[in-house]
Structures are given as C-alpha cells and as structure tokens.
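Wed. Picked up where I left off yesterday with ATP-binding cassette domain-containing protein. The coffee machine is broken again, so keeping this brief.
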Amino acid sequence: MRETMIEMRGISKAFPGVQALRDCSLEVYQGEVHALLGENGAGKSTLMKILTGIYQADAGEILFNGRETKITSVLDARALGITMIHQELNLLSNLTIAQNIFIGKEIKHHGVFLDERATSAKAAELLERVNLHVGPNTMVSELTVAQQQMVEIAKAISYNSRVIIMDEPTAPLSNSEIESLFAIIGEMKKSGISIIYISHRMDEIKRICDRATILRDGQYISTVDVASTSLDDIIAAMVGRKIAYVRKGRDKSRMLAEEILRVEHLNSGSKVKDVSFSLRKGEILGFAGLVGAGRTETARLIFGADLPDSGEIYIGGKKVLIKSPYDAVRCGISYLSEDRKRFGLITEMSVENNITIASIPRLCKAFGYIDNTKCRNEAKKYTEQLKVKAPSLDALVRSLSGGNQQKIVVAKWLLRNTDVLIFDEPTRGIDIGAKDEICELLIGLVDMGKAVIMISSEMQEIQRVCDRILVMHEGEIAGELDADSATQEDIMRLASKCDMQAE
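Structure written out below (tokens, as returned):
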C-alpha cells in the first residue's frame, strides 16, 4: 500500500452567488504524478488555492502525511512542503536567478548580512538539479520562458517541497523543452516528491501521470488509473458527454471555389523565407510545424502587424498593399492572435464593447453618434450565435473562461464581416469541451462562406478540421498535405525534415 501524502475530504467552498466546490475529494500518493482534470470552472484552481492556503474551505478537512492539518496561509503550506508553480510565472525580472530563488529566505552571515556567495552556490546546486545550465547571477529578464519555468521549479525545490503543483507547465514550451521538463518530473518522482499536474493536454496526461482525479461543475467525479483508462472515458467524465475526434467528411466542391487570398514569395529575414500559398472561399487551411517554424510570423506579415522584406498579397485576384492591421481589415482579413488577452481583447471592458469595437463606424447614427441600441442588438446576436457563456453583455471580459474569451474575439470579426480569418493557436489554454466548440465553430465559419487559416501545434485538431495542411520548417513551407490522408507521422516528418535528414 503506497503512502498517502495529501488527502482532501469533503471540501466545499462558496463565493457570493457561486458554489465553487461541493464535497470534493483528492488523494495523492507519495512519489506519484497525479493529474487534476476538469473543464475551466470545474473547481481545480479553487481546490488548489485551498490546498496552498490562498483560500480557506467552508467545510471539509485536509490531511498531510496522515495527520489532519490547518492551512490558513501560503506560509503554512510552504512549511508543510506544499508549493505551486502557477501558469503565470511569478519571477521578478529585475533580480538574478539566485535572488529570485531565495527571496524571503535569504542566506545570511550571522543572521544579519546577506551571504551572496553562499546564495549563488546553493542556487547553482538547484539549477543543476533541474538541468538548467545558466549562471545563478544571470538576470531573470535575460531568460527564455522555458528557462524561467525551470527557475520556478528550482525555487519550489528550495522550499524542500514534498508536494509540487504544476498548472499548465508546458503551455509556453517547445517539444524539446517539454522533454526536459518531463525528465525533471521523473527525477522528482524518484526522489519521493508528489506532483499534482494540471493540464488540458490529454496526451501529456497519458504519458506522465499515474492517476487522475476528475472534477466537473465543482464536484468530485472520480479518480482513475491513467494507464488502464482510455482517453475517451477520461474526457467523457470531464465534460459529461462523449467528444468525437473523428474527422468529419465535408463537401469537396468547396475546393473548387474562387480563390480569396494568394500570397507570393513572402520574405522576412530568416523567419519567413519565400512563402507562397493560396486560400479559397469555404476552405480551412492548416499551418503546422514546430515552435519557431515561422507560422505566426507569416500570419503577422499577412495582417500587416509586421512588414515584409518582399512579397506580394492578392485578395480576390487583385494585388493589395498591406502596411498595417487597418489595411488588412479593410481588405477583409482578420487575425486572432494566440495571445488573445494582449492582442485580441480589452479585458477590462465589457463583452458588448469588445464585440463592437472594430465596427464602431458602422454602428453610428448621424453626426457620428454611436447607436447604443444597435450595438446592443449586434452583440446579443453574436453571443447567442456563438453560444457565449457570460452573465450579461455588461460583464467584463476578464471574468470569462478562455474558451468564451476566444468566442468574443471571433464575434468581433464576424460583426466586422471579414472574409479571411486567421486563427493562431485557437485552442491554446482552453479546456477540452471548449476546444471541441472552437473546432466546430471553425467548421461553421467556412460553411458560412468564410475562409480560415488555422495555425496550431495540436496535430489532432489540424487533422480534424482542415482541408489542406501546409507544414513549415525554419521559415519555409516544407510541404503540403491533404488532410484526409495525412498522418501525424507525415506532419512531423516534414516539420523536422532537416533533423531527420541529419540522422
């Protein structure tokens, strides 16, 4: 019988007007990687905030190493050896790695003066444990996101943590960086550290997790052995329904439709090299490739967010000059960035304002006065059409889930009536049920006669929704695949062609 490190029993938590958790349970063994799964709003974050002392439960109990304990603050949790690495990294960029790791627990001479040499030496030992080969006195501002992730892990280990919670740790990482992270998780597991792993990436859950606890609508559903439970069953437990990932047959006559966009010999330094392709009305064109392959850079050039060194863009057969996003929108092109909060939304504004902001000139009365009734009606129409879940049109966008925020961006461009929609990682950071809705939404858009470019690192989704797949490698188009016959192996072979040729 394996030793239980953490046990949470009958945990309930309510906020004004919301029952966030109701009689939830979680049991984590020593030295296991335990997945905590559920859609956005299922209660995962609330449960972990209770475990780490940010919130206090209204009912229930927590046992640590078999003994009931009270966790009333983050300091209480750390004293027990419980730490959390949040999805939004919490490092101070103007301090060194060593200073970040030991902030609040500085090593001192005689308890008074900072011992910088000892701090650096201890930090170097921790960096070695997480396989990060960077000097401890390097400024955090000089690190990549992946390196900062490793520093967060080193910081967690420095607390002598026995339980480490990782929230979407691979979201900003490349494939090679993910491999490094998994190796570190394996070493921590061998040393008896328990990992609570939160992720929407089901392939990761299958690969590294031992067991999974599933929450839905704030309630405990089940705990399953990952190896012996199919992904379909895990997903069905999360969303309360079966989700089919089978590619849906679509009318191939759309492929003969008129060309709506053509790009010829687009270049931008070493990031985009001689990229040419066409897009037809009613088509979903997928862009696959590894991180840094040039997919986002190509999209930004088409949208005018960056200027190319050379190349031509044609809309409806006519050459157009796009020097800014304003020019692109006038030409009927919209771009939904992978960083929707930074580039797609104004999170402190309402649902209505975010939907209508790109179409204000068309929503005005005489003399430039905004027609508030028309704005309201249009926002209402598109939130209903896209099935946006929001308390009201006046709700702030920051209060919505990731999937609903993505729908707000889509609504904005549908109202603006653009013909070409470029989706950059449209399902990143959203839960499995919302991913399914976004995929269906993309298919619905082309059924309406729109043309869609989908950039995604999720090969399964690329295969599911796209008609053709362009695979990029080091700024170039490495090949084109028919989505009906393409396999993930075909995509990866093109995406990493130079590496494979070198072997």
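Quick read: The two ends are 45 Å apart (CA to CA).
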